[in-house]
TrEMBL record:
Residues 39-219 form the Ketoreductase domain. This is Short-chain dehydrogenase. Keywords: Oxidoreductase. It comes from Streptomyces ambofaciens. Residues 20-31 have a biased composition (Basic and acidic residues). PROSITE patterns: ADH_SHORT. The lineage of its organism: Bacteria, Bacillati, Actinomycetota, Actinomycetes, Kitasatosporales.
Length: 284
């Protein structure tokens, strides 16, 4: 069960790469009347998969100024050009990369109104076979890197009294998936973080949305080392998840499952955990 662009690394990821001058879009003055401005969205994991689909969907809205971040400069630039966005290639696990991204966004397009945290990486296989450095990578990208970036952009939202943080989770984090122990743990942490942060932000005007996709038709599975071979559940498109993100932002939803029927196994697990575990053991 997965959600977004990931890429296994045998060596450290690329260093922070600022966009070319001719690709950067300078900060513009507010439009639409006094006291109003075009909204700004920052999307991570935007090199491909869900992040790229979200960037294109927000671009279709026509009223977002977009900054996109990802680890692959060439693919990120292609998505940014397609979405009329500004690209900032960065490996957010590197020291200071999150601060550079946040500062660049503020200087280029202004305060962040919407953060879509879509950066993620997975690994499939038995936990006893998982290399220690891969454990660190899966946890670091999915959890600390995400939390650090939220911590940087959130004060501006609270000060403005508006904004939304969208955290891309996974069904694996809600029900746990065999051979994805560390990924399941990381996404469970994101789900708990979303709930706890939402409680803290009550009354501030800032919302938190947790998006829970099931199997998504992206390069995620190939890059995690094991392709998806099951006939069911069938993968959904990244564009379908992106539309769910857009709807959640517009309607202020706290939690969204894609597809919606995924709520059922989560409810069964919550109401009858013993039964769910027996079913999961039998059917995988």
């Amino acid at each position: 069960m997965a959600h977004a662009f990931s890429r296994p690394r045998s060596a450290p990821g690329p260093r922070v790469v600022a966009p070319d001058a001719d690709h950067a879009r300078p900060r513009r003055e507010p439009v639409g009347g006094r006291g109003t401005r075009t909204r700004t969205a920052l999307v991570t994991g935007a090199s491909s998969g869900i992040g790229a689909a979200v960037a294109r969907r927000l671009s279709d809205e026509g009223d977002w100024r977009l900054v996109l971040s990802g680890r692959d400069p060439s693919r990120l630039r292609a998505v940014a050009e397609d979405a009329s966005a500004t690209a900032f290639a960065a490996d957010l696990t590197l020291p200071g990369a999150d601060r550079q991204l946040a500062d660049f966004t503020l200087a280029t397009v202004g305060p962040v109104d919407l953060l879509v945290a879509g950066a993620g990486v997975g690994w499939a296989g038995e936990f006893l076979d998982m290399p220690p450095h891969t454990i660190d990578e899966v946890l670091e990208i999915n959890v600390p890197a995400t939390l650090r970036l939220v911590r940087l952009v959130l004060p501006g939202m609270v000060e403005a009294g508006s904004g939304r943080v969208v955290l891309i989770g996974s069904l694996a984090g809600s029900v746990a998936v065999r051979d994805e122990a560390v990924y399941s743990a990381a996404k469970a942490a994101i789900g708990a973080f979303a709930d706890a942060l939402r409680y803290e932000l009550r009354g501030t005007g800032v919302g938190v949305t947790h998006v829970v996709p099931g199997v998504v038709d992206t390069p995620f599975f190939e890059r995690r080392g094991t392709p998806y071979r099951r006939s069911r559940p069938r993968p959904v498109s990244a564009e379908r998840v992106a539309e769910a993100v857009r709807t959640a932002v517009v309607r202020g939803r706290d939690e969204v499952y894609v597809p919606g029927w995924l709520r059922l196994p989560c409810r069964v697990r919550g109401a009858a955990p013993g039964l769910y575990r027996r079913l999961a053991t039998r059917f995988g």
